[in-house]
Design a protein that fits this description.
Layout: H1 2-35, H2 39-47, H3 52-70, H4 76-101, H5 105-130
Length: 132
């Protein structure tokens, strides 16, 4: 009976990991890849006071980070850097929105994404620990 419980726990850990990782990758890597050159994206970067080249640089790193998070065969050390990069991105976005526009709904979205990233990170480590 305990084997079934252990299997279910591992399966649920993987499901939770993939749901939250997929949300982070879709919203912060895939979507920016398709929208980084829109007038709205250009205005958003400009509104926060960043130079336009930063929009392109940020998109490249977001796409690379998304690839790293979504492919299981990427070495753990590289995944750790991708998690760090996304965390830095979300924290910086939160701070930027609060400083420029004050605390509002837009400033909460990066914190929500940070929570999703933390859940992905915790379950990534649960899966790694269970595999050893």
């Amino acid at each position: 009976m305990q084997t079934a419980v252990t299997f279910t726990a591992k399966k649920s850990d993987k499901i939770i990991y993939w749901i939250f990782t997929s949300i982070v990758v879709l919203l912060d890597a895939v979507m920016p890849a398709f929208t980084f050159n829109t007038p709205l994206a250009k205005e958003g970067i400009s509104h926060l006071g960043y130079p336009d080249y930063f929009r392109i640089e940020l998109t490249i790193f977001k796409v690379l980070g998304g690839i790293v998070l979504i492919f299981p065969s990427i070495p753990r050390r590289i995944k750790e850097w991708a998690y760090f990069g996304f965390a830095l991105d979300f924290i910086s976005a939160f701070i930027g929105h609060v400083i420029v526009d004050g605390f509002n709904g837009e400033s909460l979205f990066p914190l929500l994404m940070l929570i999703f990233l933390i859940i992905s990170y915790v379950y990534y480590h649960k899966i790694i620990k269970a595999s050893h």
